[in-house]
Specification:
The structure is a single chain. This protein has 417 residues and is mainly beta. 8% of the residues lie in helices and 51% in strands. 30% of the residues are buried.
Length: 417
């Protein structure tokens, strides 16, 4: 009697495990397509947040490979590898992250692998009323498969299922992108639009001596043949800055984020030829909703002696070095081997850190133009070699002013970048 009971319990347990594994397998493969060359494309994971993590590896790797040795292990006729965790982060706002897997693909001929350029493939998230999100993707090999991940901030927020298109770049200039695969994924961040009110443009706001005027906000043409990884239409904003009623070229709009009432948002970037006209790079907002435009204004040059701070650090430097300038804690180190990394870890709300220049031990300028930066940190590329032993850098810690506008977007009156 007991044996029968134990047998029944064992069968029930086995059935539950089988159902669980089948469900996990179904969850694994419901966003899968077979491409024309026989390769398989699958969305492994979808999440929404500031930091999004995904585990790479096939079904067996993710289920049984966590304790496998670094080189993998053979079980029966299967090779089990250790899964790897990949992370994609937003700069300071959450986004929709997608992790893709490509299987059985020929690296020499497959359209997603043969180029490996950042502008050869992209994900498109089409919406309505001009809303669309884009992000270039590049696949990298790991184990038996190739993986890519992307994070976007514009998608169909109000829909239960979000349309996604994987596109490859074409040589045809009139139709530079072709759909390779299409999916509809579950929306992990379905939102209800906020109730905002807006004022007519232009709008001006003044803080101290600084006056920022928002002249235009809306959509403008952004030719894909010039920047093929970006959309044909971009969100844009045009500003004017005065200091004490006068224009001062040392003061600029530094960071701009435009958000629509449904929660979609894009960062706007300065164009080198039009310093106070800014454009979105990887998406555009819907024009049937009010926008909130947040902008910061700060110096980009002309710093006072009290704002400038010079320091010397060894190259390389490990661990990071922490010091204090003008009452502000400052962390100094290197990123990616050759990038000076400076941060204000306390994140003072009205202060900004800006790179000025860097010298080697001989006194030669070694700063490059590439890097990344925000209000409280920057990374700046340096021309350093194995012979360099010290870096002397000058930074500025200075005031930053934050403005906010609510507008009804329209079509921009002047041309594209």
């Amino acid at each position: 009697m007991n044996r029968r009971r134990y047998s029944a319990c064992g069968l029930a347990t086995a059935a539950c495990v089988a159902v669980l594994l089948l469900w996990r397998h179904y969850a694994d493969t419901r966003y899968s397509v077979k491409l024309s060359d026989g390769s398989g494309l699958r969305i492994v994971g979808v999440s929404y947040g500031l930091t999004n993590e995904f585990v790479a590896g096939d079904f067996l790797d993710r289920q049984f490979g966590r304790k496998a040795p670094a080189g993998g292990i053979n079980i029966l006729s299967f090779k089990i590898h250790q899964p790897a965790t990949h992370r994609v982060e937003g700069f300071d706002r959450p986004g929709l992250a997608i992790f893709l897997e490509l299987t059985d693909a020929d690296e020499k001929t497959h359209p997603l692998l043969k180029s490996r350029r950042a502008d050869s493939a992209r994900l498109e998230f089409p919406g309505e009323h001009g809303a669309v999100g884009y992000m270039p993707i590049v696949f990298h090999k790991q184990g038996r498969s190739h993986y890519a991940m992307a994070m976007v901030t514009v998608f169909s927020r109000d829909q239960a299922r979000i349309p996604v298109r994987l596109q490859t770049r074409q040589t045809n200039a009139t139709q530079p992108w072709a759909n390779l695969a299409e999916f509809k994924i579950r929306n992990p961040a379905r939102a209800v639009s906020e109730a905002w009110s807006a004022q007519d443009l232009p709008q001006s706001q003044t803080i101290g001596d600084i006056t920022l005027t928002l002249l235009e906000a809306g959509h403008t043409n952004f030719p894909a043949v010039e920047n093929p990884a970006r959309p044909n239409v971009a969100s844009t904003a045009v500003f004017d800055v005065t200091v004490g009623g006068q224009h001062d070229t040392n003061w600029n709009v530094r960071e701009v984020v435009a958000q629509s009432a449904d929660g979609n948002h894009v960062s706007l970037w300065r164009n080198s030829q039009q310093a106070l006209r800014l454009f979105s790079r990887y998406g555009s907002l819907p024009t049937n909703q009010f926008w909130r435009v947040e902008a910061t204004v700060a110096k980009s040059a002309g710093f006072t002696a009290s704002e400038l701070h010079t320091f010397s650090v060894p190259y390389p430097l490990d661990p990071k070095w922490t010091t204090n300038f003008a009452g502000q804690s400052v962390t100094i180190g290197y990123a990616n081997g050759d990038m000076l990394a400076v941060e204000l870890p306390d994140k003072p709300p009205t202060k900004r850190v800006t790179f000025v220049h860097a010298l080697n031990q001989k006194g030669d300028r070694i700063d490059e133009i590439t890097g990344s930066w925000g209000q409280h940190r920057f990374w700046r590329s340096l021309r350093v070699t194995s012979k360099d032993t010290d870096v002397t850098a000058t930074i500025a810690i200075h005031d930053e002013y934050r403005f906010e506008f609510f507008v009804q977007p329209g079509t921009a009156r002047v041309g594209s970048p």
